Amino acid sequence: MAKSDLNKKQIRFLKAQAHALNPVVRVGQHGLTEAVFKELEIALDHHELVKIKVAADDREAREVLLSEISSKSRAVIVQTIGGVAVLFRQNSAKPVIDLSNAS
């Protein structure tokens, strides 16, 4: 699912849902390790909408890392603010977030 698959109303809805969330996954100085990726997969499967914190000071490095995370996890980057990003990937087996109301 790409960000273009979500309409503006759905993106706004997901941003509102994510506002109160705390980062559940932290990507440290070693980048996207296998352990971090497994944690992210578990969080996306269970919650669908997660905040992650990326510890990269350089904006370009952070964007490259977030792009890699997004493509590897097949998640959509809904929003980024500084070192915090909101990712969304709908669970096809057991959807948690209903986007039909926000279309």
Number of strands: 4
Beta-strand share of residues? 15-25%
Radius of gyration: 13 Å
Supply the CATH architecture: 2-Layer Sandwich
CATH homologous superfamily annotation? YhbY-like
- Unreliable stretches (pLDDT < 50, length at least 5) are none
Q: For the largest sheet, list the strands in their spatial order.
A: 1-2-4-3
Distance between the termini: 16 Å
Instruction: Examine the coordinates and then state which fold CATH places here, giving the name of the CATH topology.
Output: Translation Initiation Factor IF3
Largest sheet: 4 strands, mixed
Question: How many DSSP helices?
Answer: 3
Helix and strand pattern: HEHEHEE
Count of discrete structural domains: 1
Determine and state the CATH class.
Answer: Alpha Beta
Shape: globular
Mean pLDDT: 89
Report helical residue fraction.
Answer: 25-40%
Q: How would you sum up this structure, described in words?
A:
The chain is α+β, with helices and mostly antiparallel strands and 103 residues long. The protein has a single domain (3-97), classed as 2-Layer Sandwich (Translation Initiation Factor IF3). 39% of the residues lie in helices and 21% in strands. The chain is built from three helices and four strands, in the order αβαβαββ. A hairpin with a 2-residue loop joins β3 (76-81) and β4. The longest helix is centred in the middle third of the chain and has 15 residues, at 59-73. It is globular and about 40 Å long.
